[in-house]
Amino acid sequence: EGLCPTDLRLLSEFYSSLGMGDTEAELSRCHSFLKILEKRLSEAEQDMKSRSRLYSLLGVFSGLFVAILLM
């Protein structure tokens, strides 16, 4: 599926600003970006959990529907 537009924008902004500061500024920028990525990862994991529950329920109800139709 790939990266969402928000993630692509974040990466683009990060890479476009690399090499424009001294070592301390670059390290600070990297640490800030890492925190943003960790937050995005946590959000994606929560989204994945909620969607997996939804897909599981859809599978169960679809199976029940087919079973009822075949009776």
Overview of this structure, please?
The protein is an all-alpha fold and 71 residues long. Helices cover 86% and strands 0% of the residues. It contains two helices and no strands. The two termini are 38 Å apart.
Summarize the structure.
With 71 residues, the protein is mostly helical. The protein is 86% helix and 0% strand.
User: What's the tally of helices?
Assistant: 2
Strand element count: 0
Give the topology string: H per helix, E per strand.
Answer: HH
Q: Tell me the Rg in angstroms.
A: 21 Å
Low-confidence stretches: none
Give the DSSP E fraction (strand runs of 2 or more residues): under 5%
How confident overall, as mean pLDDT? 91
List the helices and strands and how they pair.
Layout: H1 5-17, H2 23-70
Descriptive labels:
single chain; 71 residues; mainly alpha; 2 helices; 0% strand; rod-shaped
